Protein 1
Amino acid sequence: MDAPRAIDFQRRHSNVLRMTLPYRSEDLLACRHCPRLRHYLAKLRIDYPDYWNLPVPAYGELSAPLFIVGLAPGLHGANKTGIPFVGDASGDMLNRVLTQLSALSLVRISNAVKCLPLNNSPSSREINNCQKFLMPEINVHFQQTGNRAILALGGVAHRAILKALSLKPRDHPFSHGNIHHLGQGQWLVDSYHCSRYNTQTGRLTEPMFINAVQSAIDCTRGKVECLGIE
């Protein structure tokens, strides 16, 4: 078996600086607003010197009709590769389902929190600090023409999205498979996160995940009438 190819982080860093983002890429990569995460990433640069260990930007075309928002980078996934949902079990499942549904070209992917959180559990302050990046990502998504949908992977992402849109959770409760009409041609679809924990415990099965992703795709294609949504 061939040895895995090393990631050229210098090239990846340069590519990020040239990416089209709804904020300055330099501001994201240089962000130090969360002391706990800043110190954690500094430690990881020693423990895992060949990992990305920086805030992870969104990935995909700005014009993509489906915007997928997860919780945060995984230690051996996006925190390693610098690309959301690439390198770990969560990313494997998401990419497998997107491939099965022929939807890889339809999506842009990001996280509510851009840095790897301790114990995969960001604090409220850390989630709120990342609003300055999530909010413009969502705004530019909904500014595009045509039907647009966001797929929230988990309750934290769901609530962060609502906060970015100045919407109240009581008006849009999270539940797997929920579809929320946010405005003309704008939709929010909920799914449990495709984490290893959720799949191993049976909280989320692959057919459940496929159905949620398909619902989000249907929203972008104007097929909402078949979902029973007004």
Protein 2
Amino acid sequence: MTAPLTTQSLRRAQAHLDQTRQEAQEAIQKIFARRAALYREGIAASSQRIRLALARQVNGLDEESGGWKVTLQLVEHQIQLLGRLIWAMEVGERPDRPPLAGVDWLEALAVVPTQAAVGWISRIRQYLDLLIGPSLATETAGPREEIALAVRVPDGDGLVLADGRRVRYIGIDAPEMTTWEGPPEPFARQAKAANQQWVVGQRVRLVRDVSEVDRYGRLLRFVYVGETLVNAELLKAGLARALSIQPDTGRALEFQALEWEARRKGKGLWGA
């Protein structure tokens, strides 16, 4: 039997989560600082061997940073849900009745080290799937390769297929066409134009790494036109940055090296 919930036990859980959030934020800041230093070393490196060694270090930092980011996201949701539950208890609302029925605070408490969490551990997986979407839960759906017709591109790192499915290129991040401030980011239009020239009207070969889709339902793919890997061509032209996100890191080291080479040559983004 689980111990009864009290506002005191929940506030202790909140304090623990606040501490975890601070630790995660500090860890991410340190990783970013180290990553920036490695980037500078990679740009200045005189040999491919040194650049690849540095790329491996960056890839390791990206993996570590990704873990901390997931932790931070989870903790933020837990804090919000606990706040709602504390409010409900203080005003006399029961969490198993409307308007709080269905709120996922049970799953939030399942990963908080308090007595109140006992008995709810089996629900952690459900909460994680809900919180971070299908990208970490779905790894093997669909064929590893397929050929499909690309009909348009929304930006420099995605395309739309004839059947309406959207594709997000693995391992790269092009400048955004739409931003909160309004105008596109520098070189966003050039990246979109290059991507359009490569793929629109072409039967492209789509190759999956690990994940099937991201949290927005877009297919995650390496995109080939003939034997040309479009993801890589955009990096070579300096129209995208290397972006390593677990678990789809099969070409992370190669892509990191391509970005550094484009930086060294002052291509695209790196010559502005």
Protein 3
Amino acid sequence: MSSGGVIRGLTRGVKRAHNARMSTQEQTPSPKSDNTDGKTCGTNVSYPVWHGEFAVRSADLGADGRVGPGLVISFLQEGAAKHADQLGMGLLSLLENGRTWMLARMRLEFAGWPGLNDVLKVVTWPTGARGQTVALRDYEGYDGAGKRLVTATSEWILVDVERQRIARLTPEIMALAPSGTPRVALPPAWPAAPAWSPEWQVALPVRRADLDVNRHVNNVHYVEWLFEPLPNEWYQRRLQRVEIHYKTGAVEGDTVICAAAPAGSSMLHHRLTRESDGVVLAEATTGWAED
């Protein structure tokens, strides 16, 4: 992830962060319950874990009457944000010290999807670090009956707002996942995609409504934009896996080229680039099954 491109404009966002954050919480379904201490996966290790529920509203349904991956990811990330707040490492606390979180990668596996008036029960916890700069966090999502619908893992970087550089994780962050903290079970990550040429693509202008409090396109929109160029036949299939690597950020006034191409009968490669200079904003691979 290019920190300089992603971070530009953060200093202005610090002053607006508190009010913008409260507005986001008011517009997002609040969890019905939460818990910041617990155990999962049958381990005897004590580690911080968050539980909460998010309801699916009619406004969340797409043209096909179903929810999309963007909504599920937004629920997972909202749970993570609330947990970080409770641990004293949320957006507002970090901004007071000139730091912020940026999402670098996310991998998800879907076993099902919540429907209208369903809830997604989110469980999330810190799972360690890769080196001194990448914090790891895992997620599980269940329906109201306890069936697992989604399993995910993510990588986050800590950014120095003033210097526009990646910062080292603090000892407090590193200590959140003691030895023995469990990880979710996911298939091995796909290898890096070989060079490929787009088969479908579409240009999308960045709107003010697409921006987050950091004045960059919210990472959930990147996931939604992956699917914009796909022909209708792919929407008849069932999305099973998403792996996305965020590289740099788009801002208001940019135009994003969303491109995709098949990689076999059940896999697609995706690339989001900035039209003005061809810089790659994100790359992803998705896996599909016949519905």
